[in-house]
Amino acid sequence: MRVCLTLAALLATAAVAGLASTQRAAPARTLRIYSSLPLQASREHNGAQARDALLGARLALAEAGATAGGHPIRLMSLDDSSRATRRWDSGSVIENALRAARDGHAIAYLGEFHSAASAISIQLLNKAGVLQVSPSNTYVGLTRREGAEVTDGEPGTWYPTGVRTYGRVAPADHLQAAAIAALLASRRVERVLLIDNGEQYGGGIAGMVRRRARAGGLTVLGPRPFRSSTRISRLVRRARADAMVFSGVTDEHAVQIFNATHRASPDMTLIGTAGVAESAFTKYLDAGTAQRTLIMDPALPTAAYTPAGKAFVEAFTTRHGHPPGRYAIFGYEAMKVVLAAIDKGRGDRAATVEAFFATRNRDSVLGRYSIDGDGDTTLSTYGVWRVDHGAMTFDHAIDSSLHTADAL
Q1: Strand 67-68 relative to strand 131-134: parallel, antiparallel, unpaired?
Q2: What is the CATH number of domain 173-297+381-402?
Q3: What is the pLDDT of residues 89-104, one digit of tens each?
Q4: What is the architecture of the domain spanning 5-171+305-369?
Q5: What does the pLDDT average to over 30-42?
Q6: What is the C-alpha radius of gyration for the chain, rounded to an integer number of angstroms?
């Protein structure tokens, strides 16, 4: 998450105020699915993952014959990143969302890749009644109250019409928190130090981990917002904890925090949330730090998926000439579930939204899942990854559904 969600809300609110009403998609005409992903982002900042998510979506559309609900479907690929910064850009997100919202033939929108970017586009697309499905967002406040910044009105603030139009195919952070608590228990941790980024994303996860870890009998210290690596070192020495959990993103001094923590307590287990699941983090850890680091991520290695998932890997590799990255399969399924909703809605915007939220027991490349009333998938597995030679290496998976009953 690269910008404060409060700033995202302000940007989107300003754009919503000037958004004209739009018409429903005309019957028997070509309908447009827009995608908005950081295609110019650097490889270190998940640019390659975003590009593979788009290739996965293209594959799904090709397999459907580029039709759904009796309409030809055209994918309009938009870029929400800046060439100058090689990261996602709020101005580009607004431009992309407004373009889709003002298009009377827009039927759905795939994106954004980053949760803070979706906090901008959700409001604009909600005003227009366009279904939005993200392949990768995990911030819980986009869809539900638990772990959200309730004082800011989340999640209701994102939906000016009062009708939900956004969902995701990656499990959200309440499930990540349950997976982290289960990981701590499996490693027989007795004392855990929580460090967050002092914002909604990190504070939300930290609060959920805190409740679940305490319910499991752990002594929980924090959460404490990051201030400086010097203060982190002193805090770690005083804490005498077995593990540290950092809920933040790479750009928030994550490398310095992990390296300083390891130097202060070399035997401590270091756990990072999905906000650091990128090479911009893993490449720059000290060797000793890397050996003690575990990273949570909703993506699993392709070998861990269903037979249908393995067939996807073969089809993707054949079509694009390289194996899929971790998020290609999420881009593929985001397009597949959107096409299924368009089929059921016969190309009508409102009916397509309703059909998406009515998704039940869908057999997919990710496994069987439903979409709940919040727009969240019932998929519940998180991957635990190690760091080996600067890259993420899969260790094992945790099914969060087995650990969500405690301390809700």
Answers
A1: unpaired
A2: 3.40.50.2300
A3: 999 999 999 999 999 9
A4: 3-Layer(aba) Sandwich (3.40)
A5: 96
A6: 21
